[in-house]
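Reopening this one. Same input as before:
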Amino acid sequence: MSLAEQMGTNVRYIGQQLAQQIDIDLMNPAVGGFSIDQLMELAGLSVAQSIAKVYDRKRYANILVCAGPGNNGGDGLVAARHLKHFGYNPSVFYPKRTDKQLYMNLVTQCRNLNIPFVDGVEDAVGGSDLVLEGIFGFSFSGEIRPPFGHVIKVLKESQKPIISIDIPSGWDVEKGNATGEGLEPDMLISLTAPKVCAKYFSGKHHYLGGRFVPSDLAKKLDLNIPEYPGTDQCVRIASP
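Same output, byte for byte:
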């Protein structure tokens, strides 16, 4: 176990309310000073770098990115762009789009790199080596709504390695996969700080990304964020 992983065993696992408050603080001009697009860019970069550390591009060249309508979907679109620059062949399944300019810009950026957007999840999963999913985030609650119930069913039946952004889709942010309807990913990339549900993650690889939390804020909230190695935007953390 590396030093960073050892430090990661002491990292604080946060609930929904604190996760929302941290986002508010990060985008408060008097505290974090970030804009949403800055945070999304850094988060998506850390996701792409985490994947590159685990999945060799020669063996796992074809990556399907399943993007939801919210911030996790935006992180996935950013990650797709960086994965393309890293030498992978991403494609994007983005069935429920928004007309917000930020997300429209992310789509344009992907199209400018000739990243294909696919219409059917079944064929796309079949032609991929692994799947990066950013369908639902830490605000998810209640039942899985169409069309994503079908998407999650297809992913669960695919037997392809699945990577989840921040929260495995279908999980409660604090109770985990309590209904059994959510995904059970092989890799989880927590952002900012791992959420309480990550304690129930049993996959092979758990990384933390989002190297943007000011040290004063991290200390105030006792986040115990592990030290990021060198210039890396992500760090592997051990199970709690």
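So the earlier flakiness isn't reproducible anymore. For the record, Confidence is low (pLDDT under 50) at residues 1-8.
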